[in-house]
Amino acid sequence: MENNKNLLKTGLVMMAIAWGLFMAASDYLCGDQKEREQLENFLSKARIVRVSKGQAGGRTAPWIVSLDDGRMKGRAIFKYVHRPRPAMIPDSYFYELAAYELNKLLDLDIMPTVVARKLDGRNGSLQVMLTGVITEAQRQRKGLTPPDEEAFQQALAEVVVFENLVYDQCLDQDDILISPNTWQVWRIDFSESFAPVPELLADCPIRRCSRELFNSLSRLDPGLLTNKVKSYLSEQEIEALLKRKDLIIAAIKKLIEEQGEEAVLFTKKKN
Amino acid sequence: MNSIIRRKRTGQKLLFLLVWLVWLTRPVLPAEQIPCRWSGVEKIVVVGDLHGDYDHFVEILKGIGLVDSSLSWTGGQAFLVQTGDVLDRGPDARKIFDLIRKLETEAEAAGGQVQMLIGNHEEMNITGIAFDYEDYVTVEQFISFLPEDYLARKQKELEKKARRGRDIRHLWQEVIDFDLEARKKYLVNFNQKYGKWIARKNAVIKINDTVFVHGGISEEFSRWKLEDINNRLRYELGVFQKAILNLSPPTDMKLEIVYRSNGPLWYRELALANGSLSEEQVDRILNNLEAKQIIVAHTPRLILTIDDMRRFGGKIWIVDTGISQAYGGHMRALIINDGQFSLWGVNHGK
């Protein structure tokens, strides 16, 4: 009888802890999602204070935009070049928006928030401009080492999986941004992604993946994915994207078979 | 009287035909044999991005003494290197191309050279993507490269609209932005009259121990032979030109040079002081190129003294000084005389 009571107590305590953890996790997720939605709202509706054209380098000649909604001020990058495939030099802000939809669907947090917006009569993508960040090239050049190397490597491993999914250049040191304070890693510039290639990147092998991302990929409903990106991608581009998703899952499963789950999957550490 | 005029006209036609036949039979080097290396050159004058500013280009050439008041070559055996980006943002790229064409012949006859390199704006006009960017192709530039008969027809059409109170310049801007037929006319005519000539230029050249390039040479491309870079670029531009001129359908060729962010026409890192490139990397690039220094343009920089042009202790020199009025009109040129670097223009620029 005493044993049963103890068991019940332990059970209740465990349930309380589990509930607490669940609530904390929900709060965290809601916080992230809420923040993202707030930023999307800000980018979509904030007043345009200033537009600087020709200041930022780069092949898409983006504009730097200052925004103010009365409570918050910020700067953003506006890309308007729109040369979707089959152009011989494909480059489009549509691909930025499609990559961001994927980033959200997979619950990743590697892309700065970006929305579609019209500016000076041009349609384009408006993306949060990160300040106080360095590129991976600058980090290496300065010899800066992250305080938690494993967390940093985990973040890069997720970038590699995402790059394979959207079929973009592998770990381009100028497209990886790092906050030297929090060591959060972002990947920018997807305007040339989504080539209709039903293969993974030849020079960008996937070696590890977070459990969270692997589960998200495995659970990702092709219909939902198609629905989210069909405004931005062609049928062939979506078809190839779905194929690459399946190839990534198969590649990770094969790695798990060969090396064991612990060597391949990790539970994300927060920097 | 009439018969005299007729005979004169026939004579003129024959003369024109003869000149044309001689021009056709001129020795044209196969693309893969176009030279890109010279040694033993005493004086080199380097002029950066011009962006359609003919007047400033002429002022620089006269100021340095490379041409006289009638714009004839007086530079003797000097080499003039124009590092690309003659096109876009300004009005008079066509006049600059015409002058460069003339000076090429005159300089060569005098034992000198005029070397115009291909910049990213030349690439963007040959491939047609310049139209995707706001304010790149100006109204004056657009008009200047349209075929004459089409221009006359279009001008008449727009003048009619202008009589109803519309601004003619605004109307031309609308043509640039939305009239796909007019864009096609521009691209075809530009490529036939100038694009083919531009595509026979180099992206990168080496004179003595100095490499000249519009954007820069990344470590990846420093492992390529200069000839391979130039030939590959010419090949890729040729594929675009054939597609534009309807000689072959568009392809999805893998671009190795065109539009590559670390390719010689777009790479900026040698000029940017953002700490993304180390001196060791610059040394490796120079070592691979077997060169002492690289001259780059593409990234505008305010130049007040010669030190402002120099990076990495003189291993990199930046010559995009914003010569065009579109960039402030700062007329500068780099002169390399017997290995000594000097700056022209501080007291001449605006």
Short account of what is shown:
The complex is a heterodimer of chains A (271) and B (350). Chain A has 271 residues and is an alpha+beta fold. Chain A has a domain of 133 residues.
Structure keywords:
heterodimer; A: 271 residues; alpha+beta; 3-stranded antiparallel β-sheet; B: 350 residues; alpha/beta; Purple Acid Phosphatase, chain A, domain 2; 5-stranded mixed β-sheet
Helices and strands, with pairings:
The complex is a heterodimer of chains A (271) and B (350).
Chain A lengths: L1 H44 L1 E6 L10 E6 L4 E7 L2 E2 L7 E2 H13 L8 E6 L2 E7 L5 E2 H7 L6 H18 L9 E3 L6 E3 L21 E2 H9 L2 H8 L5 H25 L1 H4 E2 L5
Parallel strand pairs in A: 11-12
Antiparallel strand pairs in A: 1-2, 2-3, 3-7, 4-5, 6-7, 8-9, 9-10
Chain B lengths: L1 H23 L12 E2 L4 E5 L6 H11 L14 E4 L10 H17 L3 E4 L3 H8 L11 H6 L3 H15 L5 H11 L1 H19 L5 E4 L2 E4 L5 H4 L3 H19 L34 H11 L3 E4 L13 E2 L4 E3 L14 E5 L2 E5 L6
Parallel strand pairs in B: 1-5, 2-3, 3-4, 6-7, 7-9
Antiparallel strand pairs in B: 2-10, 5-6, 8-9, 10-11
